Give the backbone structure.
Amino acid sequence: MVKLLIETGKRLLDIVLENISKLSAFDKVFVIEAPTGYGKSVGAPAIAALNHEKEFSFNFIHVLPLRAIVEDLYICKYLYALGVQSSECNRAPPKAFCEALKVLGVSEKDVAYQMGFDYMLRGVGRKEPTYDAKVVISTLDSFAYNFLRIPVTELFREVKHYATPRARIFTATLFLDEVHMINRFEDEASDNVLALLKVLIEFSLVTQTPLVMASATLWSAFRNSIRQWSKDRVVFFTISKEDSKSGTHICVRDREYENLAKSVKWRTSIVDEKDLLSKVVEHVEKGERVLVVRDRISDAVDLYSKLALKEDEKALLHGRLCLGDRERALEKSKNAKVVVATPMIEAGVDWDFDVGFRDATNIPSIVQVFGRVCRNRTDCEGEVYLVKTSNSLGSLLDFVNNHKNIDWRIPYSYTSDRGEDVVGYQHILELQKAEVRESLRAEIIFRGLIAPIALPPSYINTAIDEYGHSLLKKPLAQFYVHGVQGLKAAKSVYDVISSTFTYTYDIVERGGSV
């Protein structure tokens, strides 16, 4: 047994490392469940370092669902830990994160990223589409293409050189972050992504490629699907009220985290949509910083336009902004009194607000959004509101009406110091009724791509044509908004890209309604 190399300071992560140290082969899928802000992402390199020392893997691929999270993690954690500091970063990465990179023996040149439309990075660091680096931080989209032998740099070429990225995946520790987001966004064909996850789980078990998944907001149906796909060769590590072990589940109590989380006092309320504006203004006038997340872009824009604040006091973020506008909005949001957004912001953005509002619809999203309230503070009073709309979940509203004491940072229920019963957020997650069902058609196509020893380019081209060259999302269309004269005046490709925004093709077909 290899001695535990690094102590992360997070008991759940240290238990994960202890279990890895006892393995003779990485023959199970590991799933880490811990609250938002716990430190799952920054604990990932410690897992990779231990796997490297035990010769389970040679390299490390950290997979994330969104480009913005890849950018933040790459610049503000990985590069920062290796001495490349940026003014964009709020704080340095934890000591354990830096130690893990030392154990891996990597320098700045050994750490790369991979994502499409990497305008935001503007030449910072190293891009590596073939995954030919010791550590790669990648979007899920890029990972899917490389895993399925569709090299991202040769998507439209007749001949595909897929051997290098595929080999790098075989030899890596794979860390799938924010895995709950697979089954949620409208612009993703979720059943296709679930088919990919099923095939990846089976692949990792057959090849003994270490696969670790992390999330704050899994619910029972999702866990059951993971168990089925892995044929029970899975271990769930979960923050819980007490230490226990049962079958595939290891529950861990982290008293240090628990004490910090309990210092936040929560107040949960329901507000009618017609009263939303006045309630937001009420909190702003108290000097509080407010986050509002609406499902629909049109609703977010409407609220933003009605806020009688200076332009530098409010920020608007949604998926239809030009990339340049989005970058400016993100910068403005750091100090804005009110940030109005759609669910695109809920994962990976290290924001801290006093008050949060969220449409009472998507339950995992609600938990993630409220995780941005009192995120980096103790002895804080967090006030959160569920916005009642025509699309609200009745079961969710009923639950909140019947349970006023809800803890949005601790998953399990407990009795407070004042003797009051407090309900953990996991009880709310179990109200989630979204089906976790993979696409059989996509699964068949994906198996056909990964199984053969050699694969003719014609088969790959047929497969990607089948999905409009967009395997995991609905086909996308990119639009330039400043007209012919603006295009002619552009001084660089970045000027052009920063003036574009993305529509899914089905939105284009129905006339651009959002």
About this structure: Residues 190-207 form the longest helix (18 residues). The mean pLDDT is 88.
